[in-house]
Design goal:
alpha/beta, three-stranded parallel beta sheet
Length: about 130
C-alpha cells in the first residue's frame, strides 16, 4: 500500500482495527455510514497472538461473523481493504507469513481471486464469503 510502496494501492482514509471491525459487523454495521470505506488492520496480530491450537476455531468464527454481516455491508455499499503486515502467499491455501509463522487466512476469506496491479499482488473476495 502507499505510501510504503509508491506503486501500491492507495489506502482508504478511515482506519479501523480488525477486532473493532468485527464488533461493528456484529452490530449490523449500524455505526458505519453508507458509502464509507475502511482500511482494516491487525488481522495478522489477532491470529498470531492466538494459541496455534485455537487458530482454526477462531478463523471459522471470524468467517461466520463476516458472512453474517455481508448483507448489511453490501446494502450500505461499504468498501473494505483488510491490510496485512506480513507477506500474503497463495498456495493450496491463502496464508500470511508473519513473524516466522504461517497464518492461514483461507478459512476466513474462502475463495479469493488474485489480482496484480503495477507488479503488486493483492487478493479479492466479496462479502458473501464462500464456505
Amino acid at each position: 500500500m502507499q505510501p510504503c510502496n509508491q506503486e501500491g494501492i492507495e489506502p482508504y482514509e478511515n482506519k479501523l482495527g480488525f477486532i473493532d471491525f468485527l464488533r461493528e459487523i456484529r452490530n449490523e454495521a449500524n455505526d458505519l455510514p453508507k458509502l464509507s470505506s475502511y482500511m482494516v488492520v491487525g488481522i495478522d496480530d489477532v491470529l498470531y497472538f492466538t494459541k496455534s491450537e485455537d487458530r482454526h476455531r477462531l478463523s471459522r468464527k471470524i468467517h461466520d461473523i463476516l458472512q453474517a454481516g455481508a448483507s448489511a455491508l453490501q446494502r450500505k455499499n461499504i468498501q473494505v481493504h483488510v491490510v496485512c503486515k506480513g507477506k500474503l502467499i497463495k498456495g493450496d491455501t491463502l496464508w500470511i507469513e508473519y513473524r516466522g509463522e504461517k497464518l492461514n487466512i483461507d478459512l476466513i476469506f474462502g475463495s479469493t481471486a488474485k489480482h496484480t496491479s503495477k507488479g503488486i499482488d493483492w487478493y479479492f473476495t466479496g462479502f458473501n464469503l464462500s464456505s
